[in-house]
Every structure is written in structure tokens, then in C-alpha cells.
């Protein structure tokens, strides 16, 4: 039997190789590698996909989140509240603005910001909240919005993993003042290298973003403000447009696979073994960037799955507040109990549009054997 991949981009790309080659060949022909026509085209298409008024291409997801915070006026002397259970880029983007990241707790079930514990992270300096739709699962936005409104705080979405995810029918990327996306190759929509985007419904913010990502420039020689070089490459935009045409179909397959995983996990022996899938907040539909479960026996389960040919991933074993680089911003071990527990318990199972429901059945059969093996000891 062919081995089970965790993520198989080669096969995914091979399925549309003709379209990808055509898209790249066009860029080679016209040679406008910086802000070529493909960039504007992709921005329109992506805004359309998300359902936002504007999308601004960026060099990567970290740059996109930095820009998304910067144009809201986030900077020195301010604090931004974010979960510690996320990729470090979420915190780095805050620090890049000059503001201070303040880590908030997540819930064990959703693995996302816990609205009931959000207020305890606030101070007089709090200016914004970053809602990270981790693994593709939208946060409990109604609750977060209600709390943000009490203090007039901006909400920025880190939608790096959530292309196509919805909350009460609205897509991630339309749920805050600004939202950042990553097109890192392994994301649901991935470039052939680094790329990202910011979406917003606010035309003023959209204009600021356009300036910021391109040296504060509107015309070639005149710079209206200090910006950055955060542009999306033409070649990446061309690849992204070609792949965007297939994103719905790929996300649908991810959702089918996730539904099958969830079906298995509701049955024996999973249901009597301590292993749980990520729970969706009311109204949230995940894009299933990752299929994450939590179990107190994580390391052993991972090793037993590996021995039987099932690759798994860790997202993320060290929470931000315990990262050496971020120690000055966190309260140290024991300060975020749920987050720290999740970091020890999360396990990502194979999830990729090239997998089939039969593959998920195979993976769950093997997981079943692992549980039985572990119970017998
Ligand atoms: C991938 C990712 C980012 C950063 O994106 P890059 O394109 O790698 O810079 C930020 N936040 C989260 C949650 C991510 O998964």
C-alpha cells in the first residue's frame, strides 16, 4: 500500500500542472516581476473569494499581519491581546509595530481565544485583539466583538490558516477591521514560496495598506508616508490565481475528510479513550487547515502511529509565552494553564485535499489499533 502523506503538495500541483505552467510562463514573457498585472488581478479575485471590499497582496503572512496592525494605528505604548497558542508570527507582528503583546488564554475545547478570560488580559493600554482562527477554525467572534465593543478595541483577524472558513456564513477575512492571510506553501492556498494578503472592508484602510506595502508610494517617485517593502511578487500572484480557482473544491475535500475523522472519533474505542477533536464555536465552519486532536497520551500515540506508517504534526508544542524570545512578555510557566496543557496534548493528523475518505478510514483503523495496543499494556 502506498504510504500515507501528512501533506502532499507534489500530487496536488501535478493535478493542475498545465494551469500553473501557463501562469508562470506568462510572467516570464512580460517580465514585470514587481507589481505586474497578475498582482492586481489576484487581489481582486481574492477579495471576491473572501467577500471583502479589498485585498492587498503582501510578501508573506507575517508582513501582512504587521501591516494589518500598523494601519490601525497600533504602535509604541499600546498593548495587543492575542492567544499564546498560535504560531510565533502572531506575536512577532505585534512587536514589529512597537506595541506589546499580551497573551490571553484559550479554551481546551475550541483551542481558540477564551472570551470569558479576555478581560483579564486588558489594561488601560489595550488597543486591539488578534483573533487567530487557528487550524482554520473561526473564533467565537460574537463574544469577542461584544467584549471589544465595551472598550472600543479593534479586532484584527489572523486568518493565516483560515482561507474559506466561515462564521455564521461570513468568511474569515471579513470578521474584523483588518485580516491577514498567509500563502506559505503548506497553507490551504499556498504560493510557490512566501506570500500573503490583508483584507479589509474599509476603503481608507485599504489605501493605507496599499501605500504601506510599497514604500508609502502612490506614484513612482513620490512617497507620502514611510512604508515598507512588503509587496506580493508577480510570479506568486500568478500561481495563487491559478490555485484559487480550485480552492473551494480543495476545501470541500478537507471538510469531507474532517467529517469522516469526526465520525470515527465519536465511536469506540476513540470515545472511551482520552482523545478529542477541536470543537467548533457556535456558527463556525473550519477550513480544516489542520486536523488537530488532543490527548494526554500525545507523545506515545504519535510514536505508535509513526511506527505504523501514519505521519503526524505538532502545532504547536511550545506556546508563545514560553518561547525564549518572548519571555519578557509572558508570565512564565503556569501563567496560562489551558494553553500549556494543550501544547502538551495537541496532535495534527494527516489532512490534505489529495487524501481520500478511504485514506482517513485507513488512518483511523491504525489509530484504533494503537489505542487497543496501549490499553492492553
Ligand atoms: C503561517 C502563519 C503565519 C505567518 O505566515 P507566513 O506567511 O509564514 O509569514 C501567521 N500566523 C499563523 C497562525 C500562521 O499559521
Describe what this molecule looks like in 3D.
The chain is α/β, with parallel strands linked by helices and 377 residues long. It is 38% helix and 14% strand. It contains twelve helices and 13 strands. The protein is globular. It binds pyridoxal-5'-phosphate. The site of pyridoxal-5'-phosphate has 15 residues, from α4 and α5.
The tally of helices reads: 12
Content-based structural category: alpha/beta
Number of strands: 13
Question: Kindly state the mean pLDDT as a whole number?
Answer: 97
How are the SSEs placed, and which strands pair?
Elements lengths: L8 H6 L2 H14 L6 H14 L3 E5 L2 H10 L8 E5 L5 H9 L2 E5 L21 E7 L8 H11 L2 E5 L7 E2 L2 E2 L6 E5 L13 E5 L2 H10 L21 H11 L2 H19 L10 E2 L6 E2 L5 E4 L3 H10 L29 H9 E4 L7 H20 L1
Parallel strand pairs: 2-3, 2-4, 4-5, 5-8
Antiparallel strand pairs: 1-9, 6-7, 6-11, 8-9, 10-12, 12-13
The structure holds pyridoxal-5'-phosphate.
Question: Summary?
Answer:
The protein is built from twelve helices and 13 strands.
Amino acid at each position: 500500500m502506498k504510504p500515507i502523506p501528512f501533506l502532499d503538495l507534489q500530487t496536488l500541483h501535478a493535478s493542475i500542472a498545465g494551469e500553473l505552467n501557463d501562469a508562470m510562463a506568462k510572467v516570464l514573457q512580460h517580465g514585470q516581476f514587481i507589481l505586474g498585472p497578475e498582482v492586481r488581478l489576484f487581489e481582486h479575485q481574492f477579495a471576491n473569494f473572501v467577500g471583502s471590499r479589498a485585498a492587498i497582496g503582501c510578501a508573506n503572512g507575517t508582513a501582512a499581519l504587521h501591516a494589518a496592525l500598523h494601519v490601525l494605528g497600533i504602535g509604541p505604548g499600546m498593548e495587543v491581546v492575542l492567544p499564546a497558542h498560535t504560531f510565533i508570527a502572531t506575536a512577532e507582528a505585534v512587536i514589529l509595530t512597537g506595541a506589546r503583546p499580551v497573551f490571553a488564554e484559550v479554551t481546551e475545547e475550541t483551542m481558540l481565544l477564551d472570551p470569558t478570560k479576555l478581560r483579564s488580559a486588558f489594561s488601560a493600554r489595550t488597543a486591539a485583539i488578534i483573533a487567530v482562527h487557528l487550524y482554520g477554525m473561526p473564533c467565537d467572534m460574537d463574544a469577542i466583538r461584544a467584549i471589544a465593543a465595551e472598550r472600543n478595541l479593534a479586532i484584527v483577524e489572523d486568518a493565516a490558516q483560515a482561507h474559506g472558513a466561515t462564521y455564521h456564513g461570513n468568511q474569515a477575512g471579513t470578521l474584523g477591521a483588518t485580516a491577514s492571510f498567509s500563502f506559505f506553501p503548506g497553507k490551504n492556498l499556498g504560493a510557490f514560496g512566501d506570500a500573503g494578503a490583508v483584507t479589509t472592508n474599509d476603503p481608507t484602510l485599504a489605501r493605507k495598506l496599499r501605500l504601506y506595502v510599497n514604500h508609502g508610494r502612490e506614484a513612482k517617485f513620490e512617497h507620502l508616508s514611510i512604508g515598507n517593502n512588503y509587496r506580493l511578487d508577480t510570479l506568486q500572484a500568478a500561481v495563487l490565481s491559478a490555485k484559487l480557482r480550485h480552492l473551494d473544491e480543495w476545501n470541500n475535500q478537507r471538510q469531507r475528510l474532517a467529517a469522516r475523522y469526526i465520525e470515527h472519533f465519536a465511536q469506540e474505542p476513540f470515545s472511551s479513550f482520552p482523545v478529542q477533536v477541536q470543537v467548533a464555536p457556535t456558527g463556525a465552519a473550519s477550513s480544516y487547515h489542520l486536523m488537530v486532536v488532543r490527548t494526554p497520551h500525545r507523545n506515545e500515540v504519535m510514536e505508535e502511529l509513526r511506527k505504523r506508517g501514519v505521519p503526524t504534526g505538532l502545532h504547536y508544542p511550545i506556546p508563545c509565552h514560553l518561547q525564549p524570545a518572548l519571555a519578557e512578555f509572558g508570565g512564565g510557566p503556569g501563567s496560562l494553564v489551558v494553553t500549556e496543557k494543550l501544547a502538551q496534548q495537541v496532535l495534527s493528523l494527516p489532512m490534505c485535499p489529495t487524501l481520500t475518505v478511504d485514506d482517513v478510514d485507513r488512518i483511523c483503523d491504525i489509530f484504533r489499533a494503537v489505542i487497543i495496543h496501549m490499553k492492553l499494556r
